[in-house]
Specification:
The protein is of the alpha/beta class and 292 residues long. It contains 11 helices and 13 strands. The chain has a single domain (4-291), classed as Spore Coat Polysaccharide Biosynthesis Protein SpsA, Chain A. The protein has helices at 35-45, 60-65, 70-78, 82-89, 109-114, 117-120, 142-153, 217-222, 234-241, 262-274, 280-291; strands spanning 4-8, 29-30, 33-34, 50-55, 97-102, 125-128, 132-135, 157-162, 172-176, 186-194, 205-213, 248-251, 255-258. The strands form 3 sheets. The chain has a 9-stranded mixed β-sheet with strand order 5-4-1-6-11-8-12-10-9. A two-stranded antiparallel sheet has the order 2-3. Strands 7-13 form a two-stranded antiparallel sheet. The longest helix has 13 residues, at 262-274.
Length: 292
């Protein structure tokens, strides 16, 4: 069973400067909670019990956020602010733990994932890129479906979504054995093409930033040479994995928001504000007034 998840959070977030100069980009708020919490809660809903942050010395605020703050909880309890107290206490379920390991040098996503090898061991695990928020509107959770598919078949799962044909040159695009799978379904991959030229892409399915992988990929990463950008690429290790076993592309059902850039971050704020249980009505009204 997949019960571990690796979250690479060591990057400096240059696309979110100047805000990310002093605040980890993962801690920038989306309405009333940091972006990283949405990603962690997605993992928890998929059955993950162990969150492994691959971090940097400048990112301790992320670790602190998931730690218990006894003084804050005591103050809230003393002042009778029970609702706020419950929200602070319920950031993580009691049976979920957060572990942090360091990535001392920025050598790519594959290197970041490999930094978690001592904690992951031989176990299968999920990888969630924290820049990407995935909203499934409380049902048909995509990551959980990927985990369930892996547990049932043993086939690694790569989450993909369809993008317009005129934008395929901006993404990693998967090549499939046959037709594209329906939403919520998986199909066998035969490769990944990084940013193909328009008109030459093998499909319109782009890699989203969610993976369910076997533990053996850690050994593959240790022997994966630098690739694009002179960095160790996770996609290169997945390509090696495909030489010996089936890897599947899973077409997501939810909606994605790229919080690694300012436009995507604003879109996420609008989306989650509009559906917030307490602020939704006023947020929708404010957005309508702004547009008007």
């Amino acid at each position: 069973m997949v019960t571990k998840a690796v979250l690479p959070v060591a990057g400096f977030g240059s696309r979110m400067l100047p805000a990310s100069k002093a605040i980890p980009k993962e801690m920038l708020p989306v309405v009333d909670r940091p972006a990283i919490e949405y990603v962690v809660q997605e993992a928890v809903r998929a059955g993950i019990k162990e969150i492994i942050l691959v971090s940097h010395s400048a990112k301790t605020a992320i670790e602190d956020y998931f730690d218990t703050q006894f003084e804050l909880q005591h103050q809230l309890e003393t002042k009778g602010k029970d609702k706020l107290l419950a929200e602070v206490r319920d950031i993580l379920p009691d049976d979920v733990s957060v572990i942090s390991v360091r990535q001392h040098r920025a050598l790519g996503l594959g290197h970041a994932v490999a930094c978690a090898a001592p904690v992951v061991g031989d176990s299968p695990f999920a990888v969630l890129l924290p820049d990407v928020l995935v909203d499934c509107d409380g049902q048909n959770e995509d990551l959980k479906s990927m985990v369930d598919r892996f547990d049932a078949s043993g086939f690694p799962q790569i989450m993909v979504e369809e993008v317009p044909e005129n934008r395929v040159d901006q993404y990693g695009i998967v090549a499939l054995e046959g037709a594209a799978p329906a939403r919520g379904e998986s199909a066998v991959m035969r490769g990944v093409v990084e940013k193909p030229a328009i008109g030459e892409a093998p499909s319109c399915l782009s890699v989203v930033g969610r993976y369910v992988l076997p533990g053996e990929i850690m050994k593959i990463l240790q022997n994966t040479p630098p690739g694009a950008g002179n960095e160790i690429q996770l996609t290169d290790a997945i390509a090696t994995l495909m030489e010996n076993q089936v890897v599947e592309a899973y077409t997501m059902r939810g909606q994605t928001f790229d919080c690694g850039n300012k436009a995507g971050y604003l879109q996420a704020i609008f989306h989650y504000a509009a559906k917030h249980p307490e602020l939704g009505e006023v947020a929708r009204s404010m957005m309508a007034e702004t547009v008007g």
